[in-house]
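Exercise 7b. Backbone tokens:
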């Protein structure tokens, strides 16, 4: 009987101790344009109090706007460019890799993870352009994955419309 009371008291004490302390957390929220390209990344404070915040508290709302060079292209840090986006029949890819790196593979996946295109390259290949036919693919979202010689991968989302 004493053990059950002791366990009950410990449970209540733990609930009060941990239940009254609010844990503030950050959540990362994204905004996308109609083509599926990320346009905004924002940190939002979750479970934050509504009373005034002291000056020592860091600002947890940081907004980063991402703008593309051209309205109908999608690009990544290593200069992988996919155009037009959205596409109807054929997707064109251009790439460049800095510091002696080269592109090893280009793959295209459906949203369910099925790979329908795969092209491999060797270091001696000088090509930096590729066209991928989407004529047999249904309208929807696709992911182009490029793997470089250092193992880094770049992904670009493209949309096929009718």
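Sequence design result:
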């Amino acid at each position: 009987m004493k053990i059950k009371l002791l366990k009950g008291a410990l449970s209540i004490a733990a609930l009060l101790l941990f239940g009254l302390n609010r844990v503030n957390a950050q959540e990362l929220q994204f905004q996308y344009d109609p083509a599926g390209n990320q346009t905004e990344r924002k940190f939002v404070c979750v479970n934050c109090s509504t009373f005034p915040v002291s000056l020592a508290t860091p600002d947890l709302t940081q907004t980063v706007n991402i703008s593309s060079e051209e309205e109908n292209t999608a690009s990544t840090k290593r200069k992988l460019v996919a155009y037009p986006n959205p596409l109807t029949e054929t997707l064109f890819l251009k790439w460049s890799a800095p510091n002696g790196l080269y592109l090893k593979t280009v793959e295209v996946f459906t949203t369910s993870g099925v790979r329908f295109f795969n092209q491999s390259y060797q270091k001696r290949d000088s090509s930096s352009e590729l066209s991928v036919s989407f004529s047999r693919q249904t309208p929807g979202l696709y992911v182009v994955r490029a793997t470089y010689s250092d193992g880094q991968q770049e992904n670009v989302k493209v949309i096929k419309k009718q």
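Instructor comment: Residues 51-71 have pLDDT under 50 and may be disordered. DSSP finds one helix and eleven strands in the chain.
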